[in-house]
Every structure is written in C-alpha cells, then in structure tokens.
Design brief:
Four copies of one chain form a homotetramer. Chain A is globular. In chain A, 24% of the residues lie in helices and 30% in strands. Chain A is built from seven helices and ten strands. In chain A, β7 and β8 (179-188) form a beta hairpin. Chain A has a nine-stranded mixed beta sheet. The first copy, chain A, has helices spanning 15-18, 20-25, 30-39, 60-64, 82-94, 108-114, 209-222; strands at 5-11, 44-50, 68-72, 97-101, 121-133, 147-157, 167-174, 179-188, 191-196, 233-234. Chain A is an alpha/beta fold and 245 residues long. In chain A, α5 (82-94) packs across α6.
Chain lengths: 245, 245, 245, 245
C-alpha cells in the first residue's frame, strides 16, 4: 500500500471562538471543517494545529512529519512567532508543501516565501464570486468544471502583490466588478506552494464540495516528494584545472 | 534632456581594507571601481555607500533618491541590520531596481526578496569561467557577444536555490566541470532585480570591459520606472451588488 | 535625434467595407484609426498594410523596414497565405515586435508563434468590460490606472488556449460573468509579442484614449531592439578536448 | 490495479539501417532500445512506430491510444508529412504527453509546438558531457543525483532558440566549453512537453541507466491526465446584462 500523505491543517482559531455567527458556521473551527473534508480521502492522514497550542502546534517534530501544511490565519498574523514562521519557511524549502488559504496571503510564512508585500484590495459585503479554471489540465483542477460559483464571498481584488506565479490555475470574477488571481502555484526551494483565495470565515465556503475538492487536489499536488535541505558547500573540481599563471 | 538614472553602489568594503592582495586590485574598494565604470555613462549619476557608514550609507533619503542599487557583500552579511535590509526590500517593492553581485546571493536583501535559501556550490581556485548569453535580445545582453570569457574566477555551481527566474540571461561554464545560472532576472513588487554571479574580490573581474557593459545595461534595465507603494485597501463595489438573501 | 520606431498597422479591412454600421465607426478602416492614434507620437513612423494589397502589403522589404507590426484580422484569417504568415513569424523570430489585436487570436501568425489552439469563449451582446491592470510597473501599463472601463465590448472568456504568458499585464472582467487574460506578453526568438483583447469592429474601442495609450506603450515595448536571425551552426571546440578512446 | 501508461516510442529509424557503426550500438533501432528500457516499468505499456510505416505508424487510432509519445528523428525531418505533424501537435494540445529527444529539436512537431526556430550550435567529436540537475525536486529528476556524466556525446550549445521553458530541469556542461539547457519542460494546450538533449545515434547513451531513468520519469510526468479538445464556443451570459443604450 502506498504511503499516506501526512497533512497538517493549521488555523489561527480565534474568529470561531469570538464571534457567534462564525462559530455557527464552523463550530469546532475552520481547521476541523477542512480536516474532516480531507479525511474523506483514504490516501491522507490529517492532523491539526492551532495558534494557541505550545509552539503554535508546529514543533519541529510535527513539521518533520508533515508532507503538506494548510494555513488559515486572519486577525492574529502578528502573534505568530518569527521563529516558527521561519521554521515553516525552512521546512517548505526542504520539500514540505504549503497551501495558503484566503487571508493567509498576509501571514508571515507566505510573505517570507514570496518576498513581496502580498497586498490586495478587499470588500466584505457577501457578493457573488465565480472562480474560473484557467488551467484545466493542472492536477489542482482535476474534476473541477469551467468554474465554481460561490454565492457569498469576501472580495479580494487586484493588484495582488505577488511574484509572477508559476501557474495561475484559477482567476475569480466578482459581482462588484473586480478580478483576482485566486489560485496560484509557486515553487520555493524543494517545496510547492499553492495560494487559494476563497474561504472567508463568515461564509460556509469550506463546506462547499468543489472547494473541498480543490483542497484535496492541492494537498496531493503539493505533498512533499523529497526532503533535500540545501546548503552552500565547497566542492572539489571534477575536471582537471590548468594551474593559474 | 532626459532625467538621469540615479545609481547607488553599495559595498561591504571590508576585504579591500583587510587583505593587501585584494587592495591591490581594488585600491579604493570594489564600489569605487564599479562606480567609475558606471560614471562613464552620461545618463547616470552614481553615488556609493558602504557598511560602516551610519545606517550603512542607506538612509531612507538615500534610497528615496536611488533608481537602482548595486549590492556587493561577502564576509559581513550578518552585520547588515535587519531594519536596513527590510528598508532595501521595501524600496525594491516600491519600484527601485536592485543588482545583486556575486557573493551578494547570500545577502539579507536578496534572501528576503527571493524567499529561498539562495545556497550554491563554490570553489576558489582561480579557474576559467565562460559566461554564455542565453537571451541575446534581452536589454542586459545588449552589445555582448555569444559569451564572455573570465580568465580567473571563483566557481559558483548549481543547485542554486532561487525561485525560477523570469529570464535566465546568462549561464556560466566552468573549467572544473560545473554550470551556473549566472545572470537571472526577477520582478518583485514594482521593482526589478538582476543577480549577476561574476565578481570575486580576489580577481580583477570588475575591471573587465564586458562585465562593466553588463552592469551598465543592467542598471538601465532595472532603474525604477514608477514608485507605487502597495497597500491593502478596502474598496467600494464598482458594480451594483444584489443584496444578500 | 533618436531613431524613430517604424510601425506597420495591418488590417484585414473587410468588415469596414461590407457593413455600414462598422464603416460608420471606422470609415477608413480600423488600421487608419490605429495609425492616426500612433502617429500622434513623435517617436513613431507609422505605415499601414491590408489583406487585399499584393502580398497582403507585407513584402519582405516592408517587414524588413518594420520594427513592430500590429495585426487585426477576423473574418478572413484563411485568406492570409501560409507563405506570408510564415514570413511574419520568421521576422518576429529575428526581432520584429508583433501586437496581436482582438480576433487576431485566431490569425495564422499568432497561432504559428504560440503553437497552441488559441481558442476561447465569446459572446457579442455589447456588454461592459473592465480591463484590470495586473502588472502596473510593466511598460505597457505606463500611465494606465487600476483599470480601463469599456462600455460595450465583445466578451472573450477563458479558457484561452495559449502557453503560459511571460507576463499577464491585464485581466478583463465582463458584465456577463466571465474573466479573460486580455493583455499578455510572450517572447519568441528575438521578438516580443503582445496580445491585447479589446477591440471588436462594431464598437469604437480604438477611439478610446486609454486603449490608444496601451497600443502606444505596446509599440514602444515590442519594437525590435536587435535583428539576429538564428541558425544551426557547427562550431569548433573552445577548450581542448581529450581525444576519444 | 491502476491504469497503465500507454507509451509510443517513435523513431525515424534510418541511421541504424544505413550505417554499420550505428547498427552495432542500436541493432534493432533506437526505438527498440528505449522501448525495452521503458518496458521494465510495470506501470507502462510500450509500443513503437517508425517513419516508413503507413502514416509513419501514427494513425489517429494509435495517437488516440497513446498517453505519451517519445520522438527521435534526425536526418529525415522533411519526410514527416505535414498532416501527421499537425496530428501529433493537435493530440498534444488535447492532452497527450510528448518527449522530444536530441535531434528532435528540429522535428516538425516540436517546431510547431514551440513556434520558434529551435536552432542551436553543435559539434560531433565525442566529447564529454555532464548533465547538471537544476531542479532536483522535479518529478523528472527523481532518483537522479547532482549530475549525470556522459562519456561521449554530440555537443549541443546555446543559443537554443526556444520559448522560455516552464522549468529548466537539466543544464549540460561540455568538455569543449559550451553549456546547454538540456532538459526543458513546456505546457502546450492540455499536454506536457519535455525536451531532452542527450542521445546521439553514434553513442550508446540510451543504454545508460541514468538516461533510461530520466526517460521513465519523463514518461510518467508527461502522460496524459485529461483529454480536453479546445474549441471556440459562443456562450450565453451567466449574469444578467443591462441592455445597451
């Protein structure tokens, strides 16, 4: 039997404990909703971690045992310790996959990996979003049709300040008149990164089957295939070198 | 008359004050050798800055007045303050160009902008390097032939841990048997970044006319065209939105 | 004085002679409307060529003297001779710029340069289009704000079957619910290619100032910088080779 | 049991029947050497096809049943019919993988898919080649170390006139002083394309275990995942459109 993909779903887990309306949608937290969806896949073994656990639930041992990490954060990016943000970044560079969700565009690990401001335009009025599949042969779009409709969403609009993605898998249309590169892939070091915009805490977006399918696909696509820490090394010449004059 | 390009050449300026053999090649520092070469271009106005000046010579005012910054550092990357590294990164994101030279691959500003380990293989035996032009129509390769020969160089070999560059302008061949993506372009925010590998302190590489031509081209290519700080902003809908049910 | 950019605007020029409503918008043809707009730039020298001229107006001599070619075609792609399509392609590979307009996505030169089907979704009901600037620091976006509104347009929707562009400069939002990568850059050989979607013959889109500004910027960006025909060549070794055993 | 990958190895099959020295290395043709190597993989079902078969062995039925096609041609590119070259191109655009080997850089299918001249420098003196792994986490590099040594090779040198690849997986170093992007990936339509330079007919390169491993990896990576023919289609609006004034 093939080795299972070890998934860790990380959540800041604040909104759900603070705001009743949000707790109604995600009673045990966004991380649990996503974890449940991923656990439906027999090839995955899914754990969770949250901000207020020791080391934010992301000890080196946990990360070492993680093939792909999903990251949801919003109101408490600043409370993530720099040390643990660097730990996540380094683990990605060694080969771990990272799926950054919605407001995670402004999280420390994502900003460190992108090197850019990761800013965007936004509006929260519950408008309609249509997520268009730009790259239908991409593994992340497997089983997804020409588009996914999301009835009520937070708008994220361009200019999204990221490096040019390797692949733009999805672009979103919004009722209010904006567009957004809402599904983007990047490679950093040995690791794969997928940013996926849909998923505001006040809407049941992670309960939507197509969104769960995208996350499933993304977890498979991003899961670590190798672990290759990179280091500077002095190396001897392979060929004979004519001595300097 | 067209506005001049404001260039600042930054140098750690330690090797040249420490090691006689290096001082012989660059008596007033690598930054002065490069600045002199760039000053031969009537469209450029060239200043310099070094590590041991206050704020490393890179006050906000200096960066504000800089269209393109060249960066040479090697033995003292750790002495560059995090604050000033972040200031350089932010200025690039707003539109300033950055040309990172040789051992600057491991500098704080470059690593922050790339988000990767920026590691590589190396060897310092004074072997021959041949810098091949991969993208002859790129503005940085203007006036450069199929290749540049460097008689004695420090070898920088792959795997170079960087994100996939926008363009690989040069790839180097080394006598000892390695290859290296030695001229790479990136865009980060509104700014352009060029990494150029040739230029070890113990060799007179920056005195070589073709290398000076590459730096001239790169300064013109990377020079800030806009200044557009990016920020997250809440924006009203442009189109009428049907109220949520 | 700097050398002027030699622009040739090519138009199929059929719609305007066939349909009165179109002739009203572009009385002397789309090519003349675009040429007039570009001639307002003192750094450009602008000629035109049309399908029904001998060699479609694109003799080798004309192409040799062209730095950047704009291409508008729609109903008569099949009447463009394969020989001349290949001639345009080859001239791009040698360094000429090519700006492909609207329905030119299905023209022979564009399809030859892309290697893909270049298919898309479409609808012609005169809906609203909003062209978002994704890459505000790109020279083609110079002077363009966050977006351009086009009151009435033909919708072009994804999936647009092109290779991943080097840069996506613009993405369009449509009233009817679609998105489109409406401004894309590519490099092919020594030449630069820009595809720009807005511009249906039944709407006065090329009379819009912002659209003319984009075409002006694009002509400057794409204008040939070099002329370097590429050929396979047998080359002697530069380094001494140890004889085969 | 998972569905097997259907591989077709295509060979011009002329050199081996014409030149005794080549026949000694590949007695039943390069295609049979490669097919044997790939058949060692239990997840692959491998057929072959050659130029002199009817329809070059590439009927629509054969292509329909092929997940990934390998292409070796050299002296008879011009004898491949345009119709069948277009058929291969179209099948790639629909989702079939294509692995183009060595002198296949100048084959009709590859040139049609790239849109460029696909020219390069070359020299055939049996010098040493070292194929460096640039992207060690790429599935095509699985199980390959930092480099592969090829004792005797035909040199292929830059400038290689191709569009910027999605990923440069390998770069070659040559004893005579050149470099080459020898392993490049591209996506065209729904299909994946891998160009791999090593493999001249006068050298036993395809008998080398590491080269066979690269081809195995590439066949798995490029194998069709979807079959999605693309077509232009008129589509109704999804959203209500305000009637034109």
């Amino acid at each position: 039997m093939a080795k299972k993909i070890k998934v860790t779903v990380w959540n800041e887990f604040r909104h759900e404990r603070k705001t009743e309306a949000i707790a109604k949608i995600y009673p045990d937290g966004i991380h649990m909703a996503i974890a449940r969806a991923l656990r439906a896949n027999p090839d995955m073994e899914v754990g969770t971690a949250t901000l207020d656990e020791p080391e934010h639930g992301l000890s080196q041992a946990v990360l070492d045992a993680t093939d792909v990490l999903l990251w949801w954060g919003h109101m408490a990016h600043g409370e993530v310790s720099d040390e643990i943000a660097a730990r996540v970044q380094n683990r990605v560079l060694e080969g771990m996959g990272l799926i950054v969700l919605h407001s995670g565009h402004f999280s420390k690990p994502f900003k460190r990996l992108m090197g850019t401001a990761c800013t965007l335009m936004w509006r929260e009025v519950g408008e309609k979003e249509r997520v268009w599949t730009i790259d239908p042969s991409h593994p992340i779009a497997e089983g997804i049709g020409p588009y996914i409709d999301i009835p009520h969403t937070e708008m994220y609009g361009e200019r999204f300040d990221i490096p040019t993605p390797d692949q733009v898998v999805f672009i979103s249309w919004y009722e209010g008149g904006e567009v957004f590169r809402s599904g983007c892939t990047f490679e950093r070091g040995m690791g794969r990164v997928f940013y996926f915009a849909p998923g505001h805490e006040t809407f049941p977006i992670y309960h939507q089957a197509e969104i769960q399918k995208v996350l499933t696909n993304a977890a498979r696509w991003a899961a670590a295939r190798v672990r290759l820490p990179q280091a500077c090394r002095m190396v001897p010449a392979i060929e004979k070198i004519t001595p300097r004059d």
